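Predict the holo structure. Ligand: aspartic acid.
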Amino acid sequence: MPDPIVIATWPFGKVAAEAALKSLNRGEPALDAALVGAQAVENDYSVRTSVGFGSLPDRLGRLTLDACVMDGKTLSCGAVAAVEHIKHPAALARRVMEKTPHVFLVGEAAKWFALQQGFPLEVPYTTEAIKEWLEKHPDFRKKGEVKPPAPCDNPSDINVDEHNHDTVTVLTQDKKGNLGGVCTTSGLAYKLPGRVGDSPIIGAGLYVDDLAGAAGATGVGEEIIRICGSSFVVEQMRGGKSPQEACELACKRVSAAAARRGVHPAAVAFLALDPKGNTGAACTTRTNFKYAVGRGEKVEMLQAKEIGPDA
Ligand code: ASP
């Protein structure tokens, strides 16, 4: 069996990878370790534009969280979306997987389920996040109307970078060789209320199958949903592609989909892990996607290959 391994999105993926690697090295199952990693980022209020409480809210100033989990051995999965006041949406998604016959709960009903499961209701806002939201919405304060910030008007124009991206995706392989994955986010900053991206959608933001591999995504969720991104990557690996080739093909497919609408490809990135412990990652241009890889005792940061529209 390969050594345990973890890969996780963006620079804060280091926090996730370090926590998940400790768990894997203790012999814990892949999904448990991925959850430990994701939760470490949900808990980190210094990740201000990002995952969990303290992140940037929607256009109305409300912070809603999305998450999903998947176990590669059984294909069991769970998801929640548009959940307010619950600090650990990934743990809640796991409860959906384990305690209900369903896969996906949303909004108030997901919150109701969280309360039933003993999750506390908590205040998700920080002074910094509220201040930034107010600064970005002077018209809202003056005229009492919601004026959307420009970056949200066309998905292909949304420039996802370290200042407004919001997802940690953690993929793990445990000592038994099983795969697990968790994806957790507050979604795109200043999204329309009710908007849900790829992150909590099984097959879009995450897909994990011990027989083929695990994949996750980050970036403009609309473009990832359009091509069933993570499922696409896993199916490429099932067909014999390496994780790197599979991620590059997904980026090309995003570009091809954008070309059919006559727009530039939006910023998206994919990362993947195959059953042999090989990893890969790729992103569209302008995405500047960094990710963490942890193996043994060591976590390193890598820069993903950019795949332009003409690749
Ligand atoms: N994929 C997330 C979403 O669309 C955002 C991100 O990863 O930056 O909600």
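The two ends are 35 Å apart (CA to CA). The CA atoms of residues 179 and 249 lie 22 Å apart.
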